[in-house]
Amino acid sequence: MEGIGDLGTVSALMAGISLSAAAGLRVFLPVLALGLASRLGLLELGEDFAWLASDPVLLVVGIAALLEASAYYIPVVDNLLDTLATPAAIGGGTVIVASLLPEMSGLLQWGTATLLGGGAAGIVQGTTVLARGASTTSTGGLANPLIATSETGGSLLTIALGLLIPLVFGVLVILALVWLLIRLVRLLRNRRSSAPTPGT
Predict the structure, then answer these.
(1) Which of 38, 100, 121, 139 could form a disulfide with 23 if both were Cys (CB 3.0 to 4.6 A apart)?
(2) What is the pLDDT of residue 192?
């Protein structure tokens, strides 16, 4: 099987988009996987991002990933985390893609990373925020642990497939992101149209 390093820029970019989408489910797991994959020689990070594979960073990010996954099982805290996780996920997705584009530099590198990585993470994170909010409203939060479990499992699965079959899975992730974005836009439009007009 050809690895990420064998397939070049397109494969690395697809892997980055997949990992960024996973960051929309759990911020730290994909960053941890990125560093470990670099240490194992599965992919090559840009020179400026070698620190992601360093022992201190892997240790800190590993602990953060464990704490993040656990905290989503705590009532009220899970909804609070969504507020904090949204900008963190977008930032994480941006860094992930930027680290896999060593041939780019400056504005082009970060612009591409923000659009593709930050955008992918933001779309997925926005979907999970709405899902958890709906669960909290309809079930009083009783179903939230199920959502938390599916998010963690989904993040792990996305990471694994994004690293093992980056091209094929990357295409599937992009299609899923487009579908999610369309659903989010429609949902927000419906909410605006159904909101009561001031003075009525």
Answers:
(1) 121
(2) 79
Two structure tokens written together for 165: 């079959």
Amino acid at 92: G
Residue type, 100: L
What number of other Cβ atoms are within 10 A of residue 143's Cβ? 15
Residue 48 pLDDT > 60, yes or no?
yes
* Burial track 146-183 (b if 16+ CB lie within 10 A, e otherwise): ebbeebbebbbebbebbbebbeebbeebbeebeebbee
Nearest-angstrom CA–CA distance, 55 and 46: 17
Interacting residues of 1 by C-beta distance below 8 A, sequence separation 6+:
164
Pick the closest to residue 47 from 89, 105, 4, 3 (CA basis): 105
